[in-house]
UniProtKB/TrEMBL annotation:
This is Arylsulfatase A-like enzyme. Residues 11-354 form the Sulfatase N-terminal domain. InterPro entries: Alkaline_phosphatase_core_sf, Sulfatase, Sulfatase_CS, Sulfatase_N. It comes from the Bacteria. It comes from Paenibacillus aceris. Belongs to the sulfatase family. The keyword Signal applies.
Length: 464
């Protein structure tokens, strides 16, 4: 009987999500500078997805909409607000900061299905959705960013209220605090039902202040500049002076960008080691073979590429994210090359765990992609940033459309061949030989905008 129960028990889930970790910031993704042995090992023992994208959002704090898409499995314009609630003239509509209450999150559904759901770390999508999602938790940070020591941390509140004055400043570095809370949970877990452990790091988001021992591993003079480094962006993209862009001087200086990259890699290496401690706890507890481990990020970041510093754009460095899955039901050492997006993670997990998918989910399971089936991949992926940028890519051809009017504004397109120009430095939009590709991608983008009721179309119709 016990053997039968063990075979029938659903796998545990350890879901690890980083903040600002772009797809090429891991050794397994080809970065020869950053030191990420734990994540490299996870990729070698599991599945590394090469082409997963975030869908952007209507706010400069892109972690909010991207996490909402990931948690609800829906598109960016549905995951948080309705069309009527979006006012394009507002830079930070308060309604853009909470998950659409009509949509269940994947931890919430697992909780209903009998999983013990445990939330740790950053939650930037409203206290109500956290309370619905998790039956327990520890070291909870409600917010977007802060100093890595001294973050206002909440204990789990069964009532789900989380009064601000009950938060206590942390005395440990955030990455270590969250990892240790995860380790404590794993070591103490003795229950029969499976668990879903959600650990959201605030690294490698700025302020990038890693422990000195990790910063000492990276020498500025040995940090190469990205191939698409530029002193400044070649035109007004509609968001050149948001907070993130002011974290380095104008124009960008090579030595300053190298310093930013050294700090960024140091934060990632520190986080990688803490993830290793979580994996060790799983191993020692005897839970590793029964646990699906997921590693991903909310979005990427520029750090000197295209003359930009932040993630408020739709270039590859900002919307292309890592995704690694390892555990029961997953093959080892597989590279899944098809196109996917964040909202596809929800249905993929549910198929892997044999859990009934809610009808609200728009995402597409990528299990077929893992096994090499063409049906597992998307034809196109799309992304949006506020009312100024839209993107469509079929994996090779990528169109970025800028919607910015006025004397100082921009209304233009960029077309890139990602096979031959992965750094997006050669704009082909004005090349007559590429007119067919340009028009095809424009049609694909418009069809998507119409299908998801992109509010920018309504704004454009009003303006005539």
């Amino acid at each position: 009987m016990r053997e039968h129960e063990a075979r029938e028990k659903k796998p545990n889930i350890v879901f690890l999500i980083a903040d600002d970790h772009r797809f090429d910031g891991i050794g397994a993704y080809g970065n020869q500078v950053v030191q990420t042995p734990v994540l490299d090992s996870l990729a070698a023992e599991g599945v590394r997805f090469t082409s997963i994208y975030t869908m952007g959002g209507q706010t400069a704090a892109l972690c909010v909409p991207s996490r909402a898409c990931l948690l609800t499995g829906t598109n960016v314009f549905h995951a948080m607000v309705t069309e009527k609630e979006v006012k394009l003239g507002e830079t930070e509509n308060p309604q853009l900061w909470a998950i659409n209450p009509s949509l269940p999150t994947w931890p919430e559904v697992y909780r209903r299905e009998g999983y013990r759901t445990f939330g740790i770390g950053k939650w930037h999508n409203g206290k109500e959705s956290f309370a619905k999602s998790f039956s327990d938790g520890a070291s909870i940070f409600f917010g977007g960013m802060g100093e890595h020591i001294g973050l206002p941390i909440h204990a789990y509140d069964p009532a789900g209220i989380y009064h601000a004055d009950q938060a206590k400043p942390s005395d440990k570095f955030s990455t270590e605090l969250f990892a240790e809370s995860a380790i404590d949970f794993i070591q103490q877990y003795k229950e029969e039902e499976p668990f879903a452990l959600y650990v959201a790091f605030t690294a490698p988001h700025d302020p990038r202040t890693p422990p000195q021992a990790y910063l000492d591993r990276y020498s500025n003079e040995h940090i190469p500049l990205p191939d698409n480094f530029m002193p400044e962006h070649p035109f007004d993209n509609g968001e050149l002076y948001v907070r993130d862009e002011q974290l380095a001087s104008f124009p960008r200086k090579p030595e300053e960008i190298r310093q930013h990259l050294a700090e960024y890699y140091s934060m990632i290496t520190h986080m990688d080691e803490q993830i290793g401690r979580i994996m060790q706890a799983l191993e020692e507890s005897g839970q590793r073979e029964q646990t699906i481990v997921v590693y991903t990020a909310d979005h990427g970041i520029a750090l000197g590429q295209h003359g930009l510093m932040g993630k408020q754009n739709v270039y590859e460095h900002s919307i292309h994210i890592p995704l690694i899955m390892q555990g029961p039901g997953l093959p080892q050492g597989v590279e899944a090359r098809g196109l996917g997006c964040q909202m596809d993670i929800f249905p993929t997990l549910f198929e892997l765990t044999g859990t009934l998918l809610p009808q609200t989910v728009e995402g597409k399971s990528m299990v077929g992609m893992i096994s090499g089936e063409a049906t597992g991949s998307r034809k196109n992926v799309f992304s949006a940033y506020k009312n100024v940028q839209r993107m469509v890519s079929d994996g090779r051809w990528k169109l970025i459309r800028y919607f910015r009017s006025g004397e100082a504004g921009t209304n233009r397109a960029q077309l890139f061949d990602l096979y031959n120009d992965p750094g997006e430095t050669c704009d082909l939009a004005e090349d007559p030989a590429k007119l067919e590709q340009l028009q095809r991608m424009e049609q694909e983008l418009l069809a998507w905008q119409q299908s998801i009721k992109d509010p920018i179309l309504h704004e454009m119709r009003k303006k005539g």
